[in-house]
């Protein structure tokens, strides 16, 4: 399948989001008697379609957005006031028509997690539990900050008594940014500052703390050793049991995998049990092509205990509340990311994902988590699209709404917003949108260009690792750049 495994999920996600958005405009416009001349998925030349009634339903050549063309919507269009023209309608009706597109995206963002929770609810048990530290990855940000097993985190930045889910979302969104924490350690409150270490997941910069909940402690059994890898060169063998890392008892595979991320190119000591004896092996972990640091072995998954899960079906009210809470979390994280960009704490390129990167993420989500993961990604992007389109940027729905509001306010004083000013605002908004789209596409391409590295890449592919504990959120750390819609 190759590249199709990325393109097909991407086009599915994008197609649904654009259709839902444009259908919102279409349905409300029709309700108010506005003639819709074109309903297009995509921009540019018409590829295929059909005409039904007054409307040409089409798929166009450039699949990066869509539009609904209504009669009498352009500023330079002559109105005949026949009753079916957009600009001839009352302002309140135009407002609702413009609002309908983003609103439908927000409704979809709430509906997807809600329906999934009603039929396929599953989550790691610890996500809803208080953030009590079970273990701390070796060499991690948490280890350097001084966190210890048994610490109960009672405050992290603005979060009071966070759950593991809330903690992980906060850490993910604050790579290389210092966070103040308060922990309860044996009844004493201790202040700790932690700076989550940045790592690249699907070329997205995210934060990692190295904090882990209480999971079952067990050594790691080796099933396969990769030819040419550091472990092979050091003498690791199949059926070895890894019991210590740099003298510290291995907590479990998840802890070991996370700890190794902090020792790229650094001599690392693995203590293994082999035939009733302990063997010490020195090796240099190295970064693989997927961005993960490994030593080159596959664990025996039969001896890895997954985190306890909660599964079942939620009632409509429970699912609705849970979906609202998740969407609120995404909005808070988006606001936090934008604030970091404005304050200079985060680069815009690290916080925005364009079509190339969204396509890569869509493909990976589908390959690793199936349709459920892809739908969760769709919900995230739908919320992103809906909220962004409400920004008061001319050309976007929010820009048109902004102009309507200005016209209404000026009308109270008997004034008018001239056609010339409206046109200039639209031109400025169009240029802004083009610049933004150009930036995110160039940013996407730059992330996939080969980079120089002092670490020699591994030639062989790493053996498949067992699934890590499910992520606290299906949200993509970086914010998806807007899909142009109209």
Describe the overall structure.
The structure is a single chain. Helix 2 (about 90-120) crosses helix 7 (about 315-345) and helix 2 runs antiparallel to helix 10 (about 395-410). The protein has 11 helices and 22 strands. Strands 12, 13, 14, 15, 16 and 19 form a 6-stranded antiparallel β-sheet that branches. Strands 6-5-7-8 form a 4-stranded antiparallel β-sheet. By secondary structure, the protein is α+β, with helices and mostly antiparallel strands. The chain has helices at about 5-30, 90-120, 140-145, 165-170, 230-235, 255-260, 315-345, 350, 355-390, 395-410, 420-450, and strands at about 35-50, 55-70, 120-125, 135, 150-155, 160, 180-185, 190-195, 195-200, 205-210, 210, 220-225, 240-245, 250, 270-275, 275-285, 285, 295, 295-300, 310, 350-355, 480.
């Amino acid at each position: 399948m190759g590249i199709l495994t990325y393109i097909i999920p991407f086009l599915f996600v994008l197609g649904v989001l654009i259709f839902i958005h444009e259908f919102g405009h279409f349905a409300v416009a029709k309700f108010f008697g506005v003639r819709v001349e074109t309903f297009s998925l995509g921009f540019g030349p018409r590829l295929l379609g059909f005409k039904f009634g007054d409307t040409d339903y089409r798929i166009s050549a450039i699949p990066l957005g869509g539009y609904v063309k209504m009669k009498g919507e352009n500023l330079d269009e002559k109105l005949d006031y026949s009753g079916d023209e957009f600009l001839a309608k009352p302002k309140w009706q135009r407002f609702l028509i413009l609002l309908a597109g983003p609103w439908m995206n927000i409704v979809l963002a709430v509906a997807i997690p809600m329906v999934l929770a009603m039929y396929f609810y599953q989550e790691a048990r610890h996500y809803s539990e208080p953030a009590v530290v079970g273990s701390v990855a070796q060499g991690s940000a948490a280890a350097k900050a001084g966190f210890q097993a048994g610490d109960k985190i009672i405050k992290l930045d603005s979060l009071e008594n966070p759950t593991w889910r809330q903690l992980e979302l906060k850490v993910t969104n604050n790579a290389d940014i210092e966070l103040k924490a308060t922990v309860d350690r044996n009844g004493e409150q201790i202040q700790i500052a932690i700076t989550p270490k940045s790592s690249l997941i699907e070329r997205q910069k995210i934060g990692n703390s190295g904090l882990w909940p209480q999971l079952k402690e067990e050594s790691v059994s080796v099933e396969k050793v990769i030819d040419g890898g550091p472990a092979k060169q050091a003498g690791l063998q199949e059926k070895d049991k890894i019991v210590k890392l740099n003298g510290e008892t291995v907590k479990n595979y998840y802890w070991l995998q996370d700890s190794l991320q902090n020792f790229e190119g650094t001599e690392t000591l693995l203590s293994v049990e082999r035939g009733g004896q302990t063997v010490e092996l020195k090796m240099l972990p190295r970064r693989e092509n997927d961005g993960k640091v490994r030593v080159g072995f596959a664990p025996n998954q039969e001896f890895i205990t997954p985190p306890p899960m909660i599964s079942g079906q939620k009632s409509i009210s429970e699912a609705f509340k849970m979906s609202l809470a998740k969407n609120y979390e995404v909005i808070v994280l988006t606001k936090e990311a934008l604030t970091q960009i404005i304050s200079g704490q985060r680069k815009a390129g690290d916080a925005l994902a364009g079509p190339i990167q969204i396509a890569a993420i869509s493909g990976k989500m589908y390959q690793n988590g199936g349709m459920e993961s892809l739908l969760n990604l769709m919900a995230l992007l739908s919320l992103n699209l809906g909220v962004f389109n409400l920004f008061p940027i001319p050309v976007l729905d929010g820009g048109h709404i902004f102009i309507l509001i200005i016209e209404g306010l000026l009308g109270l004083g008997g004034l008018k917003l001239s056609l010339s000013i409206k046109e200039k605002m639209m031109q400025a908004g169009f240029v802004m949108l083009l610049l933004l789209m150009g930036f995110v596409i160039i940013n996407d391409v730059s992330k996939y260009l080969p980079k120089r590295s002092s670490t020699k890449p591994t030639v062989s592919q790493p053996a498949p690792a067992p699934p890590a504990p499910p992520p606290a959120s299906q949200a993509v750390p970086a914010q998806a750049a807007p899909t142009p819609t109209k």
